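User: Could you check the structure of this?
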Amino acid sequence: KGYSAGQGPGKPSGTSAGSSHGGRGNGNAVCYGSFRHPVESGSGGGSWNGAGKAWGGGVISIDVKGTTTVEGGVTANGERKDWDGPSGGSVYLSTRFLAGNGTISANGGNLVNGGLGGGGRVAVYLTDAGATFDDFAGLIAAYGGRSDATSSGVGSSGTVFLSLASDPEDGGTLVLDNGDIAKYGSNAYSGGTDFPLIDEVDHRQNANLKVVIGKYGHIVSRGPITVKELEMSDSTGKLNLNGQPLSILSTVHRSRKKPKDALGHWQGDWPGTVSYDTAGSPILWGAGFLLFVR
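Assistant: Sure, the predicted structure tokens are below.
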């Protein structure tokens, strides 16, 4: 298991709050760790009136030279307690092939009430040139913690990183998805997932990365972002530019809302809340600068 209550890099500032790791808990501590090579334990939740004392998720690292078949669970989830959720831990899996229909997860801890912890980090590397993730029918997740009380909301999703043997060192696919949490309504969003991390000063290190923002995924930009492709695959996904530039090194993205350059690509100051022209019309907000580069 990970850090004990009130301990760890993502510990909340208050006693009645959830901790952070790959995603922010409602204690709003900054995210930490690496989405490509997760090795950090989850942080413990706050401890309301000494109750709860929930431990963060632990660390799992597996290197398989053949096929990994997951029928049960490979989990580094935060502990479930009555109050104040811990964050999820880390799962790192390197294998030639991945099969089965089980679960690989580093979810924030679920709880009865109180603060919600953020999801942890999962990274799965397929090392055989012929391997794809299509052979795995299960779930790979880093969901934020859920509360039995819908009024308490949900912790932010952590990160799931998927890499094929053909991906370059700065490539792969980063997925931010928090599952189906529609029942929480406006409480379904917490502090978001920091990307890039504040100490990642060279934003070009992800120039071949594909970022997928799925159900209730919520990225908050903490610095300049440069990626190869951005896919906002669900109408509940959000990206807060937070005053930062976003560069997409792809020609497949379009917007009907704003003027385009001579190559037909949109670029310019992002004014604030506005629908982005993809299936389902997800939302970008937080004034910044958006640039598409051929």
